[in-house]
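Sequence dictates fold. Next comes a concrete instance:
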Amino acid sequence: MVESPPAAPLAPRPPGSRRLGPSHPPGGVILAFLSPALLVYLGFTIYPALRTFYNSVHTIKPRGVEEFVGLANFRELLTADAVFWKAVANTMIWAAAAPVPDVGLGLLLALCLYAKVPLARFFRVVWFTPVLLSYVVVGIIWMWVYNYEWGVANQLLREVGLPRLAHSWLGDPGTALWAVMFTHVWKWTGFNMVVCLAALYALPAEILEAAALDNCGWLRRFVFVMIPMTWRTLLNLLILSFIGKMRVFDLVWIMTGGGPLWSTETVSTYVYKRAFEWSTFDLGYPSTIAALWFVVVLGSALALTWLFRQRDQLEY
Protein backbone atom coordinates (compact mmCIF):
# COMPACT_ATOMS: atom_id res chain seq x y z
CA MET A 1 0.00 0.00 0.00
CA VAL A 2 1.33 3.38 -1.04
CA GLU A 3 1.07 5.90 1.71
CA SER A 4 -0.09 9.37 0.77
CA PRO A 5 2.44 12.09 1.40
CA PRO A 6 1.79 14.28 4.44
CA ALA A 7 -0.14 17.44 3.79
CA ALA A 8 1.90 20.53 3.29
CA PRO A 9 1.66 23.02 6.13
CA LEU A 10 -0.54 26.01 5.53
CA ALA A 11 1.27 29.11 4.50
CA PRO A 12 1.07 31.91 7.04
CA ARG A 13 -1.59 34.52 6.30
CA PRO A 14 -0.06 37.80 5.13
CA PRO A 15 -0.51 40.67 7.56
CA GLY A 16 -3.49 42.91 6.76
CA SER A 17 -5.34 40.25 4.77
CA ARG A 18 -8.88 39.21 5.70
CA ARG A 19 -9.89 35.68 6.47
CA LEU A 20 -12.46 34.31 4.05
CA GLY A 21 -15.54 32.76 5.59
CA PRO A 22 -18.83 33.66 7.22
CA SER A 23 -18.80 37.10 8.78
CA HIS A 24 -21.21 39.92 9.54
CA PRO A 25 -22.03 42.16 6.57
CA PRO A 26 -20.44 45.59 6.72
CA GLY A 27 -22.47 48.54 7.91
CA GLY A 28 -22.51 50.11 4.46
CA VAL A 29 -24.34 47.12 2.98
CA ILE A 30 -26.92 47.16 5.79
CA LEU A 31 -27.46 50.88 5.33
CA ALA A 32 -27.82 50.47 1.58
CA PHE A 33 -30.61 47.94 2.02
CA LEU A 34 -32.35 49.91 4.76
CA SER A 35 -32.06 53.36 3.19
CA PRO A 36 -35.16 53.13 0.90
CA ALA A 37 -37.43 52.13 3.79
CA LEU A 38 -35.79 54.69 6.09
CA LEU A 39 -36.27 57.47 3.55
CA VAL A 40 -39.95 56.59 3.14
CA TYR A 41 -40.38 56.44 6.92
CA LEU A 42 -38.63 59.77 7.41
CA GLY A 43 -40.58 61.44 4.62
CA PHE A 44 -44.04 60.18 5.46
CA THR A 45 -43.90 59.69 9.25
CA ILE A 46 -41.10 61.52 11.04
CA TYR A 47 -41.17 64.75 9.04
CA PRO A 48 -44.99 65.18 9.14
CA ALA A 49 -44.95 64.59 12.92
CA LEU A 50 -42.19 67.14 13.48
CA ARG A 51 -43.86 69.59 11.10
CA THR A 52 -47.13 69.21 13.00
CA PHE A 53 -45.43 70.17 16.27
CA TYR A 54 -43.79 73.12 14.51
CA ASN A 55 -47.12 74.29 13.07
CA SER A 56 -48.81 73.98 16.46
CA VAL A 57 -46.97 77.03 17.78
CA HIS A 58 -47.57 79.09 14.63
CA THR A 59 -50.45 80.59 12.72
CA ILE A 60 -50.20 79.20 9.17
CA LYS A 61 -51.98 81.45 6.68
CA PRO A 62 -52.33 81.01 2.88
CA ARG A 63 -49.34 81.71 0.65
CA GLY A 64 -47.00 80.37 3.32
CA VAL A 65 -47.45 83.22 5.80
CA GLU A 66 -46.34 82.04 9.24
CA GLU A 67 -46.58 83.84 12.55
CA PHE A 68 -45.16 82.49 15.80
CA VAL A 69 -47.81 82.52 18.53
CA GLY A 70 -46.22 80.28 21.14
CA LEU A 71 -48.75 78.50 23.34
CA ALA A 72 -51.68 80.68 22.33
CA ASN A 73 -53.23 77.91 20.24
CA PHE A 74 -53.00 75.45 23.14
CA ARG A 75 -54.50 78.02 25.50
CA GLU A 76 -57.46 78.62 23.20
CA LEU A 77 -57.92 74.90 22.60
CA LEU A 78 -58.02 73.97 26.28
CA THR A 79 -60.05 76.91 27.56
CA ALA A 80 -62.35 78.18 24.81
CA ASP A 81 -63.10 75.32 22.39
CA ALA A 82 -66.27 73.53 23.49
CA VAL A 83 -66.41 71.40 20.32
CA PHE A 84 -62.95 70.00 21.06
CA TRP A 85 -64.02 68.84 24.51
CA LYS A 86 -67.15 67.26 23.02
CA ALA A 87 -64.95 65.40 20.55
CA VAL A 88 -62.65 64.31 23.38
CA ALA A 89 -65.61 62.99 25.37
CA ASN A 90 -66.91 61.00 22.39
CA THR A 91 -63.46 59.60 21.64
CA MET A 92 -62.92 58.56 25.25
CA ILE A 93 -66.28 56.78 25.23
CA TRP A 94 -65.11 54.92 22.14
CA ALA A 95 -61.77 54.03 23.71
CA ALA A 96 -63.27 52.93 27.04
CA ALA A 97 -66.38 51.06 25.91
CA ALA A 98 -65.51 49.47 22.55
CA PRO A 99 -62.32 47.44 23.24
CA VAL A 100 -63.98 45.13 25.78
CA PRO A 101 -66.74 43.79 23.48
CA ASP A 102 -64.30 43.97 20.58
CA VAL A 103 -61.84 41.55 22.21
CA GLY A 104 -64.42 39.67 24.28
CA LEU A 105 -66.55 38.70 21.30
CA GLY A 106 -63.43 37.74 19.37
CA LEU A 107 -62.39 35.44 22.21
CA LEU A 108 -65.84 33.82 22.38
CA LEU A 109 -65.92 33.22 18.62
CA ALA A 110 -62.40 31.79 18.79
CA LEU A 111 -63.53 29.44 21.56
CA CYS A 112 -66.41 28.24 19.37
CA LEU A 113 -64.00 27.44 16.55
CA TYR A 114 -61.54 25.84 18.96
CA ALA A 115 -64.31 23.59 20.27
CA LYS A 116 -65.07 22.60 16.65
CA VAL A 117 -68.72 23.54 16.54
CA PRO A 118 -70.67 22.29 13.50
CA LEU A 119 -69.79 24.18 10.30
CA ALA A 120 -66.68 25.60 11.97
CA ARG A 121 -64.90 26.24 8.66
CA PHE A 122 -67.92 28.07 7.28
CA PHE A 123 -68.25 30.24 10.37
CA ARG A 124 -64.51 31.01 10.34
CA VAL A 125 -64.84 32.51 6.87
CA VAL A 126 -68.09 34.34 7.66
CA TRP A 127 -66.85 35.85 10.92
CA PHE A 128 -63.57 37.00 9.38
CA THR A 129 -65.06 38.46 6.19
CA PRO A 130 -65.90 41.91 7.68
CA VAL A 131 -62.20 42.49 8.37
CA LEU A 132 -61.53 42.25 4.63
CA LEU A 133 -64.13 44.89 3.74
CA SER A 134 -63.11 48.53 3.43
CA TYR A 135 -64.54 51.16 5.72
CA VAL A 136 -66.47 52.65 2.80
CA VAL A 137 -68.28 49.39 2.09
CA VAL A 138 -68.94 48.72 5.78
CA GLY A 139 -70.24 52.25 6.33
CA ILE A 140 -72.62 52.13 3.37
CA ILE A 141 -73.94 48.68 4.32
CA TRP A 142 -74.71 49.71 7.88
CA MET A 143 -76.24 53.01 6.79
CA TRP A 144 -78.71 50.86 4.88
CA VAL A 145 -79.20 48.63 7.93
CA TYR A 146 -79.96 51.65 10.12
CA ASN A 147 -82.27 53.33 7.61
CA TYR A 148 -85.51 54.37 9.28
CA GLU A 149 -87.90 53.45 6.44
CA TRP A 150 -86.57 50.20 5.04
CA GLY A 151 -83.51 49.34 7.14
CA VAL A 152 -83.12 45.79 8.42
CA ALA A 153 -82.85 46.92 12.06
CA ASN A 154 -86.21 48.71 12.09
CA GLN A 155 -87.87 46.06 9.93
CA LEU A 156 -86.94 43.38 12.46
CA LEU A 157 -88.33 45.47 15.29
CA ARG A 158 -91.59 45.91 13.42
CA GLU A 159 -91.79 42.20 12.61
CA VAL A 160 -91.35 41.13 16.23
CA GLY A 161 -94.03 43.54 17.42
CA LEU A 162 -91.82 46.39 18.67
CA PRO A 163 -92.52 49.17 16.15
CA ARG A 164 -92.28 51.84 18.85
CA LEU A 165 -88.54 51.12 19.20
CA ALA A 166 -87.89 51.77 15.53
CA HIS A 167 -86.33 55.17 14.94
CA SER A 168 -83.52 56.89 13.08
CA TRP A 169 -80.47 55.30 14.68
CA LEU A 170 -77.94 57.59 12.99
CA GLY A 171 -80.14 60.68 13.19
CA ASP A 172 -80.74 60.53 16.92
CA PRO A 173 -77.94 62.14 19.00
CA GLY A 174 -78.65 59.63 21.77
CA THR A 175 -78.05 56.53 19.63
CA ALA A 176 -75.80 57.67 16.77
CA LEU A 177 -72.52 57.16 18.63
CA TRP A 178 -73.48 53.71 19.86
CA ALA A 179 -74.73 52.67 16.42
CA VAL A 180 -71.44 53.61 14.77
CA MET A 181 -69.52 51.96 17.62
CA PHE A 182 -71.46 48.72 17.12
CA THR A 183 -70.55 48.78 13.43
CA HIS A 184 -66.88 49.25 14.28
CA VAL A 185 -66.97 46.30 16.71
CA TRP A 186 -68.71 44.18 14.05
CA LYS A 187 -65.92 44.91 11.59
CA TRP A 188 -62.92 44.15 13.85
CA THR A 189 -64.22 41.23 15.93
CA GLY A 190 -63.01 38.80 13.27
CA PHE A 191 -59.43 40.05 13.57
CA ASN A 192 -59.42 39.50 17.33
CA MET A 193 -60.99 36.09 16.74
CA VAL A 194 -58.09 34.96 14.56
CA VAL A 195 -55.46 36.17 17.05
CA CYS A 196 -57.27 34.55 19.99
CA LEU A 197 -57.70 31.32 18.04
CA ALA A 198 -53.95 31.20 17.37
CA ALA A 199 -53.31 31.77 21.07
CA LEU A 200 -55.69 28.94 22.01
CA TYR A 201 -54.04 26.51 19.60
CA ALA A 202 -50.65 27.44 21.08
CA LEU A 203 -51.71 26.29 24.58
CA PRO A 204 -49.94 23.11 25.76
CA ALA A 205 -52.18 20.11 25.35
CA GLU A 206 -50.83 18.50 28.53
CA ILE A 207 -52.33 21.17 30.78
CA LEU A 208 -55.71 21.06 29.04
CA GLU A 209 -55.78 17.27 29.21
CA ALA A 210 -54.88 17.37 32.90
CA ALA A 211 -57.73 19.78 33.53
CA ALA A 212 -60.11 17.49 31.64
CA LEU A 213 -58.96 14.49 33.71
CA ASP A 214 -59.76 16.48 36.85
CA ASN A 215 -63.38 16.71 35.70
CA CYS A 216 -62.95 20.39 34.79
CA GLY A 217 -65.81 21.37 32.48
CA TRP A 218 -65.55 23.63 29.46
CA LEU A 219 -66.63 26.73 31.36
CA ARG A 220 -64.22 26.23 34.28
CA ARG A 221 -61.46 25.24 31.89
CA PHE A 222 -62.08 28.41 29.90
CA VAL A 223 -62.17 30.71 32.92
CA PHE A 224 -59.39 29.22 35.06
CA VAL A 225 -57.02 27.75 32.46
CA MET A 226 -57.41 29.28 29.00
CA ILE A 227 -57.94 32.92 29.92
CA PRO A 228 -54.99 33.10 32.38
CA MET A 229 -52.68 31.43 29.89
CA THR A 230 -53.72 33.75 27.05
CA TRP A 231 -53.87 36.84 29.24
CA ARG A 232 -50.85 38.51 27.63
CA THR A 233 -52.40 38.15 24.18
CA LEU A 234 -55.71 39.56 25.39
CA LEU A 235 -53.97 42.55 27.00
CA ASN A 236 -52.06 43.30 23.81
CA LEU A 237 -55.31 43.16 21.83
CA LEU A 238 -57.00 45.49 24.33
CA ILE A 239 -54.17 48.01 24.08
CA LEU A 240 -54.17 47.87 20.27
CA SER A 241 -57.94 48.26 20.22
CA PHE A 242 -57.70 51.19 22.62
CA ILE A 243 -55.16 52.96 20.42
CA GLY A 244 -57.27 52.32 17.32
CA LYS A 245 -60.39 53.73 18.98
CA MET A 246 -58.48 56.84 20.08
CA ARG A 247 -57.70 57.51 16.40
CA VAL A 248 -61.04 56.49 14.86
CA PHE A 249 -61.93 58.53 11.79
CA ASP A 250 -62.95 56.57 8.68
CA LEU A 251 -66.19 54.96 9.79
CA VAL A 252 -67.45 58.04 11.62
CA TRP A 253 -66.74 60.26 8.65
CA ILE A 254 -68.55 57.94 6.24
CA MET A 255 -71.63 57.23 8.35
CA THR A 256 -72.32 60.50 10.18
CA GLY A 257 -69.58 63.01 9.44
CA GLY A 258 -69.49 63.81 13.16
CA GLY A 259 -73.18 64.60 13.49
CA PRO A 260 -75.86 64.97 14.46
CA LEU A 261 -75.17 67.91 16.77
CA TRP A 262 -71.56 66.79 17.35
CA SER A 263 -72.83 63.57 18.95
CA THR A 264 -70.36 61.38 17.00
CA GLU A 265 -67.59 63.94 16.59
CA THR A 266 -64.15 62.50 17.36
CA VAL A 267 -60.83 64.26 17.69
CA SER A 268 -59.70 62.97 14.28
CA THR A 269 -62.82 64.20 12.47
CA TYR A 270 -62.58 67.55 14.25
CA VAL A 271 -58.97 67.98 13.15
CA TYR A 272 -59.97 67.29 9.55
CA LYS A 273 -62.84 69.77 9.69
CA ARG A 274 -60.72 72.53 11.20
CA ALA A 275 -57.99 71.96 8.64
CA PHE A 276 -59.91 71.50 5.39
CA GLU A 277 -63.60 72.38 5.83
CA TRP A 278 -63.86 75.38 8.11
CA SER A 279 -62.99 78.67 6.44
CA THR A 280 -60.42 79.66 9.06
CA PHE A 281 -57.45 79.58 6.65
CA ASP A 282 -55.17 78.52 9.47
CA LEU A 283 -53.35 75.19 9.64
CA GLY A 284 -51.73 76.03 12.96
CA TYR A 285 -54.77 75.42 15.13
CA PRO A 286 -55.63 71.93 13.74
CA SER A 287 -51.95 71.08 14.09
CA THR A 288 -52.26 72.03 17.75
CA ILE A 289 -55.14 69.57 18.17
CA ALA A 290 -53.19 66.82 16.40
CA ALA A 291 -50.02 67.45 18.42
CA LEU A 292 -51.85 67.47 21.73
CA TRP A 293 -53.79 64.33 20.90
CA PHE A 294 -50.63 62.57 19.76
CA VAL A 295 -49.14 63.16 23.20
CA VAL A 296 -52.36 61.95 24.87
CA VAL A 297 -52.52 58.75 22.82
CA LEU A 298 -48.82 58.01 23.29
CA GLY A 299 -49.01 58.64 27.02
CA SER A 300 -52.14 56.51 27.37
CA ALA A 301 -50.57 53.61 25.48
CA LEU A 302 -47.41 53.74 27.61
CA ALA A 303 -49.46 53.98 30.81
CA LEU A 304 -51.63 51.00 29.88
CA THR A 305 -48.59 48.96 28.89
CA TRP A 306 -46.98 49.66 32.24
CA LEU A 307 -50.21 49.09 34.17
CA PHE A 308 -51.03 45.76 32.56
CA ARG A 309 -47.48 44.49 32.40
CA GLN A 310 -47.38 40.91 33.54
CA ARG A 311 -44.46 40.66 35.93
CA ASP A 312 -44.77 37.00 36.83
CA GLN A 313 -44.56 35.13 33.55
CA LEU A 314 -46.33 31.83 33.34
CA GLU A 315 -43.77 29.13 32.59
CA TYR A 316 -44.59 25.67 31.44
About this structure: The chain has one domain: 83-307.
